[in-house]
Amino acid sequence: MARLTRKETQVQTRALLIETAKRLFLERGYNATSLGEVAEAAGFTKGAVYSNFATKHELGLAVLEVVQEERVVAILGALGDAHTFEDRLAGFGRWAEENIGDIGWTSLEVEFATSTRQIEEVRTALATRRQLITGVLADLIANEADTFGIELDAPAIDIATHLLALGIGLGVQRAFDPSLEVTVLVDELGRLARR
Amino acid sequence: MARLTRKETQVQTRALLIETAKRLFLERGYNATSLGEVAEAAGFTKGAVYSNFATKHELGLAVLEVVQEERVVAILGALGDAHTFEDRLAGFGRWAEENIGDIGWTSLEVEFATSTRQIEEVRTALATRRQLITGVLADLIANEADTFGIELDAPAIDIATHLLALGIGLGVQRAFDPSLEVTVLVDELGRLARR
DNA sequence: GTCTATAAATCGATAGAC
DNA sequence: GTCTATCGATTTATAGAC
Known about the structure:
The structure is a homodimer. By secondary structure, chain A is mostly helical. Chain A is 76% helix and 0% strand. Chain A contains 9 helices and no strands. The first copy, chain A, has helices spanning 6-28, 35-41, 46-52, 56-79, 85-99, 105-115, 120-147, 156-176, 183-194. The N and C termini of chain A lie far apart (57 Å). The A-B interface holds A 28-29, 31-32, 107-108, 110-111, 113-115, 117-118, 122-123, 126-127, 130-131, 154, 158, 161-162, 164-170, 172-173, 175-177, 179-180, 184, 187-188 and B 28-29, 31-32, 107-108, 110-111, 113-115, 117-118, 122-123, 126-127, 130-131, 154, 158, 161-162, 164-170, 172-173, 175-177, 179-180, 184, 187-188. Chain A binds a DNA duplex through helix 1 and helix 3.
């Protein structure tokens, strides 16, 4: 292993801070987690955090970026390499049951978004990312429809918006009421796909 | 005007505190509003708040209760006294466009729910209220379907869960991205109703 | 029941040494 | 770039007077 350059160690530190913050934010929530706790858990002090992130919400944005990327990758992976539409739908269903509102992805996104709504910089960043993610999901839907010869009765972007909102709404409610089933999301996807 | 008894003045104070807190929570958010600000804006001091509410989240729960009641009443009112199904649907559409994610109802509910997720007492209270509201909405849907002879292809409770989640998801996203249209909700309602 | 005063704790952010 | 030390501001919550 070659010695790391300064640039490399900084990238490493930054990544470690984001990873640690992600874990703590998911476990305890954004507001309930202090920068000091993040720093200590990562093996640094607050100074290291502020050397890499100007403010707490900048760290929050970085964490959210990672989380959202992972979520997109997870959805793609959930569809798997199945070759029939039913199998792919089933794969998504299994993923949804295990992930919607369970680990806390949705809670974190939503807590962060609502808690920082005063900060214009954060608001626009979240809006941009929302549009990006919706677009990716829409492309995925359009591609699935094309592959399996399904006719969509609404623009893919509308269906994506619909499903994303449904997932957020179910996830945030499920976080405080685990009795809420997410089957409605899977059912709806099947319905949207078939009509 | 007869002189108020002690009990009456306390009820009045409590109501005034809730009303003031509601306004500030909606404007600035739950976390960003301190109890001192609430007390001062209502013309009291923090002592008065703590005489009526044991903790901040207890005040938050009281505010949310009022907000949720108002929301249910508003939905009922939005349907209006129209006698055709199309008119009632149109009334709901107008209400949705003006209210979903605009004033901040959804943001407040969601911010409060996610920020207090550690507090078991709050969690169960929110879960109970969620089930209650979903039930009320389900009854409303079943009643509308019955009145206008519409056949529902899913249990009313599932449709209610679906619409509520959709409204929350759209509202929370619209709070930070006003470019998001809510027509998808109205469209979906019409679709759910007709099939 | 409300007010005054204050406790007690925390947190985000900064300054300066290394 | 990271650490130590600390500031400064704020907050929830409490104790005691009225």
